[in-house]
Amino acid sequence: MESEQLFHRGYCRNSYNSITSVSSDEELLDGAGVIMDFQTSEDDNLLDGDTAVGTHYTMTNGGSISSSTHLLDLLDEPIPGVGTYDDFHTIDWVREKCKDRERHRRINSKKKESAWEMTKSLYDAWSGWLVVTLTGLASGALAGLIDIAADWMTDLKEGICLSALWYNHEQCCWGSNETTFEERDKCPQWKTWAELIIGQAEMMYIFWALSFAFLAVSLVKVFAPYACGSGIPEIKTILSGFIIRGYLGKWTLMIKTVTLVLAVASGLSLGKEGPLVHVACCCGNIFSYLFKYSTNEAKKREVLSAASAAGVSVAFGAPIGGVLFSLEEVSYYFPLKTLWRSFFAALVAAFVLRSINPFGNSRLVLFYVEYHTPWYLFELFPFILLGVFGGLWGAFFIRANIAWCRRRKSTKFGKYPVLEVIVVAAITAVVAFPNPYTRLNTSELIKELFTDCGPLESSSLCDYRNDMNASKIVDDIPDRPAGLGVYSAIWQLCLALIFKIIMTVFTFGIKVPSGLFIPSMAIGAIAGRIVGIAVEQLAYYHHDWFIFKEWCEVGADCITPGLYAMVGAAACLGGVTRMTVSLVVIVFELTGGLEYIVPLMAAVMTSKWVGDAFGREGIYEAHIRLNGYPFLDAKEEFTHTTLAADVMRPRRSDPPLAVLTQDNMTVDDIENMINETSYNGFPVIMSRESQRLVGFALRRDLTIAIESARKKQEGIVGSSRVCFAQHTPSLPAESPRPLKLRSILDMSPFTVTDHTPMEIVVDIFRKLGLRQCLVTHNGSLLGIITKKNMVAHLEELTRRAEPLTPPWYHHKKRHPPSYGPDGKPRPRLHHVQLSSAAEDGEEAGEEACLLSSSSL
């Protein structure tokens, strides 16, 4: 089965080095000496599409940019397939935007011709709102279905409702008249497996956990290899312009929806919030094919940005946080129109989920809480400590998880994904069962840790010794000394914290749907609750200390341990993902209290600063780099002094650049060049002697155009002259009919000079979404820079700089000094090499030096 072969070849959470096509995305030039290999198999299918247009940008030596748009000269009959993209290729944002502008001009020019054309124009204008509405409706409905099914299957590990098998534990006891307030979770209709099968509660728990995990990984392996993992790293890569066919398809949607329920119910240390973003993007991708977005990859990514906002909206019940998450974390291109549509999609998704009411509490999430006690100034210190813990946890998790995933990919252990999932699930179930806090569903654990202790709470965390003389108010219970239940709960929480830390490292990245939001929040909530109880008891026994004296009087409700759990959860999630604004808003929407924004901001920023001190990558960027995706992170700054000539291909030791001439080559010559090379495109020049640039032709367009001409045009043979010029040159009378391919030629490729600083080139690639740009010298073609070359160059500079200086060094000095140790100005040369140890001794603060005899 093809999906099984893809799975074994590392389709999910693996580099796609072995599964991309011979005409790989960035293989415009030989990849010798480049870090990542984008070579792919030869079985990629070509997809039909529309004829594209190109845009012209020219960079001068002075760095100014002039732009002018030229539409390609279209043939009388468009060539099907020209202007589309193969799998594992990067889209041309500039060309896609030009296609959309031309489509708008065509529609606007015809809308006054008839009522039908006016109707088509209105439908086109409203299609964007229709697709995000459908996406929001589907995302909310699927999220509600997943929540209900996951709760039922999670409780199935503990027992079963005899009166109605489809009820979970809570629903089973709702209609019981024999339930007491003290034991409201016990009713005769609900039977545990220990009651049904004497002494087999633990065995049934492990059996159901292994069954759910095995079924989940089997469905993923057989039907949809792309359904595994979180999906956010790949969505970030797709939104940056990369093509991964099938990743957002209908099979992936169906299998991920089903297996996400199974994975959560198995008790693995994972969450459903991250995969819900993938599910929502699958809905957006499918609905986009019903409208104008099916033929324009750039416009489709605007829909996917709105869909990701809807996914976070239903995952956390935070519509505004979802919009900010899409803007801050996943989107590469986010115009104002996309902001409005993202807000509307998040609104619709949250409304649908609220209508379904999956948790029966009239809330969008299970762990919605409200606090009634304000925070005090002295509490900022423990909040910041929780931020430090979150940053340290994030740095540790990223390094440990990436190291384990890299080991999985490089050893035989990665060849047995089903066995890995079964082993992880078995260890998790066996170790988790004895501890009530690890046996709980992770969302329910977070809910219990967030909840403030009131007179109606029966948890061990609320087992305080009551003062009989103190007045008891429902919403304001004074601080009390901890009882034996609290100390026992703290001990169990410490064990749960260690267990969660270890298992999350090994669980994230296995071949089942696995989110990271909930496990990270659980780790932070456990740590925060422990710190909150410690501060509470410290304030109770030492209320006369100067830090407590002003706020914590005897009999006052001073400290809220649940608030510390919430702050710790935000800090740990921020340390792993390096989210800031969107994370604070998401957690704020969870609690509904404006007064806790300052503690959240302090903890989240502290966790980000601490995490950045050990490495500036979040977990999603780290997995993108591990998988080898061509992703240029807009958050990173280019701090080196290289030139375009240092990065362009070919190098001095490489073969000459493969080029086409505008009117001196035959069909056989071009076909031989296509067959003998794996480049994705070819620059077109006037002649071999002048090297003056005419344009750029894509390999895929050339292949499709030649095949179409052989079938539809008479007289086209192997010796036919191929002409890219506007006018066909004079040919002998006996010559075969020439083939005109000017229509597929991009006559305005983006060019830079060989002396353009790479920091400018990097910004151009990021902001314009280029696939490649050509390098010229005085108008003559020298070489080419592709997105692959750019990513490889940045990777090489980072790899060479890391052993030399600590990560926080780059915050102090961005550029190497302009003067050397001898006080003389440095020459501006073509190659970069890290400074030697001897030179570091003379000038310890120098990051790199320019040497004429070195090369990358």
Automatic annotation (TrEMBL):
Belongs to the chloride channel (TC 2.A.49) family. ClC-3/CLCN3 subfamily. Strongly outwardly rectifying, electrogenic H(+)/Cl(-)exchanger which mediates the exchange of chloride ions against protons. The CLC channel family contains both chloride channels and proton-coupled anion transporters that exchange chloride or another anion for protons. The presence of conserved gating glutamate residues is typical for family members that function as antiporters. The chain crosses the membrane at residues 126-150, 205-227, 247-268, 275-291, 303-327, 376-398, 418-437, 489-510, 522-543, 563-588. GO terms for molecular function: ATP binding; chloride:proton antiporter activity; PDZ domain binding; voltage-gated chloride channel activity; volume-sensitive chloride channel activity. It comes from the Eukaryota. PANTHER family: CHLORIDE CHANNEL PROTEIN, H(+)_CL(-) EXCHANGE TRANSPORTER 3. Keywords: Antiport, ATP-binding, CBS domain, Cell membrane, Chloride, Endosome, Glycoprotein, Ion transport, Lysosome, Membrane, Nucleotide-binding, Repeat, Transmembrane, Transmembrane helix, Transport. Residues 847-856 have a biased composition (Low complexity). Pfam families: CBS, Voltage_CLC. The keyword Ion transport applies. CDD domains: CBS_pair_voltage-gated_CLC_euk_bac, ClC_3_like. This is Chloride channel protein. It comes from Bos mutus grunniens (Wild yak). It is a multi-pass membrane protein. GO terms for cellular component: axon terminus; early endosome membrane; external side of plasma membrane; GABA-ergic synapse; glutamatergic synapse; Golgi apparatus; late endosome membrane; lysosomal membrane. Gene3D superfamilies: 3.90.1280.20, Clc chloride channel (1.10.3080.10). InterPro entries: CBS_dom, CBS_dom_sf, Cl-channel_core, ClC, ClC3.
